[in-house]
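GNAT acetyltransferase, Orenia metallireducens. Tokens?
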Amino acid sequence: MIYEIEKENFNSIYSLLDDTMDNIEVKAVIEGINPGWIFVDSIESPQTAMVWSKGIQGFYFVGDENNPKFNNYISNFIDEEIKPRAMKRNLNQFEFSGETEKWCPILEEIFGDRDLNKSKQYIYRLNTDLWNDYEKRKLEDGFILKKIDKELLNNKRIKNLDYIISEILRWWDSCDDYLDRTFGYCILFEDKIVNYCICDFGYDNIRPMGIETLEEFRRKGLSQITTEAFIETCIKNQLSPYWECMESNIASRTLAEKLKFNRERIYTLYSFPFRSK
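Tokens:
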């Protein structure tokens, strides 16, 4: 059987985590920093857990990867319990990874009868020594760099406030929660947000970034400029910026390396479409 645990008991799975891994997505959910749900093999003494992060819209498997009390039931649980909840959130696929690569053969066996897609994710950390010599990019005329603060989020002159608000609410419980906990930057052009770099979630001193540019304003270096501001704020506050992207996202990988990030780790990401009835 698989059980959902209450938020006040989320910290019961801390003992399942591998100390050699950052686990920031999982820890952000456990600590209530970012919303999510946790499912285990036992309420009283969990050995294996599946963590669902609302913002990432993905799932993480942690703990004992060879636990039949969990492994034998999780596939049906996903079909019967997770799928209906996910579909209400407009998710049509189950995206997941194991805490370590030890999980990979187990997950491939459990979900071997699915239309399983397999890809790689890259994780980068800033090389602060190289950043000290980095020359920041200049903003073109007509564009304005702004910190995402209460004043900006209440500025009725901005034509597409929902562009940034909807992204904040994807990751955080509210805009106030976001503003209380972290920071971000955006670029305005003619009272329109055309690019942003926000902190999606975080744990301890680690601050991951979420970056997006409106399609018609791409290839102007806007992501580079908002990310530079984000990095500067991290350094000033003794925080560690964290970059993650798909192996296939060449533009993101190129920008990370331009901004003096070093690739730290690669892990395997899986997904499959939910089964139709």
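The mean pLDDT is 95.
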